[in-house]
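FORM 7B - TANDEM STRUCTURE REPORT

SECTION 1: FIRST PROTEIN
SEQUENCE AND TOKENS:
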Amino acid sequence: MSMASPLATALAAIAKPIAAPFHELSTAEVSDALDRLNLPGSALGIGPVSTAHRLLGRAFTLRFAPVDVSPGTVGDFIDTVPAGAVVVLDNGGRTDCTVWGGILTEVATLREVAGTVINGVCRDTAAAAQFQYPLHSRGRFMRTGKDRVQVDDVNGPVSLGDVRVRPGDIVMGDSDGVVVVPAEREDEVLALALSTRDAELAIIESVRAGKTLSQARIDHGYHTLQRRQG
């Protein structure tokens, strides 16, 4: 019996539906849950480059490397990204050349890709605003990556700084930044994030009803909400 190809395995992981309650959560709520589980999922230094459009989907990953003797492509991969996926590009945090621009933004929009997150920089950010396309990176810079970097690996593990991302992991972005939820821990993260959100809503309701903030926090266990388990 033949085994599934790495690409088929990755695409199957990316195709798994995301539980509906994730759509209600913020990156802050998910980050608190990751902290409680001692999971490094908050991508430091990566945020929206134009208007912050909410981003949620499973990771389709690419890693870039400096060009070889014969320069390779930087952008044709977009033709294989499934609708609903988040493109996660690891350019090693480089800020001297881009790996995403206006053409990719428009094509990704047409293909109903959920957004892009870059460990590096992007350009043509006006296109992201025009198409309301969720785009998060370490910044913006106009110089092309062509003949400087090339795709080195598709749908393998990549890095967003100190956060490891694999195909099928959940990627969420909003105005506060980007978080990554490991696929094998997503049920735990979701349950904790929802319980934290409910506790914080209960605190607000208690204050509105006349309690002091300090008492409401004690009543609803605020000081242990982000405490690490185990």
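SECTION 2: SECOND PROTEIN
SEQUENCE AND TOKENS:
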Amino acid sequence: MRNVAKKQQEIKAPPSASLRPYRIEDQVGYLLRRAHQRASAIFQSTIGDPKITPTQYSSLAKLHEYSELSQNRLGRLVGMDKATMQGVVRRLKGRKLVDSRPDPGDARRTLISLTVEGQRTVAKLLLNGPAVTRETLKPLAVAEQRQLLELLSKIA
């Protein structure tokens, strides 16, 4: 009995840990969600097309960079799962911003590319992209902005 009581004393949290109560506002997930909400609101008001979402924008930007990509590769480049990527491509096709065709080297794959309208749209949107980042990071000093971007890239 004595040994059990002694072991229980050993595994108790140190006194300093109990001085600070748990606060959701101090948690990384909460802070990232709040920062994401702010960035999304700034994106919508700044990007120049109220119908474009951040996921659609990143897909258009990658297609602009690569010209043509398989739907799977595009999804990997922008960090989207297969189902999400299918929905994004479907909506972009509905707006006639992208087109698709079967991959001649592999009939199981679909290749995605920008339409002429998609090229025009992405060219305008890309001009506004840096303003979204500037406004989002505005509360931080320049060195803090660089540091935040470096740290986020480590955990992304």
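SECTION 3: OBSERVATIONS ON SECOND PROTEIN
The chain has a mean pLDDT of 91.
Helices lie at 2-10, 15-19, 28-46, 54-66, 71-78, 82-94, 116-137, 142-155.

SECTION 4: SIGNATURE
Preparer initials: ____
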